[in-house]
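Quick review question:
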């Protein structure tokens, strides 16, 4: 295992640089209002391109493997929230109450798409099933995450109802996604050809949200409110949560009789939480409130999951090929 696989990638380093910039030069006042409009437009563009990239064939292709998808969804939207609640008496004292709310928000999010598929591919798992599960998780999360946020946090950020939260998500995220699906017949090939540089739209929208969120949080005194011990505690909380989910997903796949390729897919799709979806969704769900502290656990968990899963994927990739794979 190369040491480089354990080091933060360029995007993570850029993310840290943006947090540092927001800490030193936060955006405030009328500039923050204008910046918020730009961020909302970038988020809409992000989900429009997601819709244009995802073919309807890919959505339908893996749908027949319903047992695997059901287990992945259960891990993403049931196991994670239950662990978040069950571990609260043990882990909440390690961090501030606000940070643990961020942990609960993390538990309510859908799975990643790109990294789950990439790790499944590297580990020689069931790639078509991974594509379908990851894409469906992201899509269903638009509706399930606001419901889980209401149950876990007891709020939708601005005091509205769960239906209001779903309405906001639908308007700002789902409609651009559907528009992208409709436009796919005309721009799908162009999006595919230019996917290497279009990824900067994904990353750019996240960076905009993170800068805006941390600017607001810094103005409100974020770093004065979080002691160094709480940051160390948050690291431990994220590690414990990820370790338990990885153990549960692997054991459930094994005990329910899935093949090794399917178990690998369940492991990588069922243990992930999406930074790309979670940060923009927090911007919508918690509009009018500071989300800097809320997304801090997600940012930390995201990097830990990438590092750990890189090690696991490389380990599974080194196993001998079975007859079925040859």
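Suggested answer, residue by residue:
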């Amino acid at each position: 295992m190369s040491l480089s696989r354990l080091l933060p990638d360029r995007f993570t380093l850029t993310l840290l640089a943006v947090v540092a910039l927001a800490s030193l030069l936060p955006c405030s006042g009328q500039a923050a209002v204008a910046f918020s409009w730009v961020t909302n437009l970038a988020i809409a563009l992000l989900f429009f391109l997601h819709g244009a990239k995802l073919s309807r064939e890919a959505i339908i292709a893996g749908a027949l493997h319903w047992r695997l998808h059901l287990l992945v969804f259960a891990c993403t939207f049931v196991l994670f929230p239950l662990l978040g609640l069950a571990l609260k008496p043990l882990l909440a004292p390690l961090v501030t109450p606000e940070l643990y709310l961020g942990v609960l928000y993390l538990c309510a999010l859908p799975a990643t798409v790109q990294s789950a598929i990439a790790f499944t591919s590297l580990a020689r798992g069931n790639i078509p099933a991974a594509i379908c599960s990851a894409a469906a998780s992201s899509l269903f999360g638009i509706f399930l995450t606001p419901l889980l946020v209401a149950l876990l946090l007891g709020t939708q950020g601005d005091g509205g109802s769960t239906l209001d939260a779903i309405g906001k998500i639908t308007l700002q995220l789902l409609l651009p996604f559907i528009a992208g699906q409709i436009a796919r017949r005309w721009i799908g090939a162009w999006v595919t050809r230019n996917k290497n540089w279009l990824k900067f739209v994904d990353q750019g929208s996240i960076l905009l949200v993170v800068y805006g969120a941390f600017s607001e949080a810094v103005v409100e005194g974020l770093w004065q409110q979080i002691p160094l011990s709480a940051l160390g505690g948050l690291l431990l909380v994220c590690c414990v949560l990820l370790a338990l989910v990885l153990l549960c997903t692997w054991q459930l796949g094994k005990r329910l009789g899935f093949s090794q390729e399917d178990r690998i897919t369940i492991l990588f799709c069922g243990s992930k939480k999406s930074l790309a979806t979670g940060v923009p969704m927090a911007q919508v769900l918690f509009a009018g409130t500071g989300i800097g502290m809320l997304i801090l656990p997600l940012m930390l968990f995201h990097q830990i999951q990438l590092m750990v899963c890189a090690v696991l994927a490389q380990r599974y990739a080194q196993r001998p090929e079975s007859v079925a794979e040859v």
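Why it works: The chain has one domain: 9-315. Residues 9-315 form a domain with the Na+/H+ antiporter like fold fold (CATH 1.20.1530.20).
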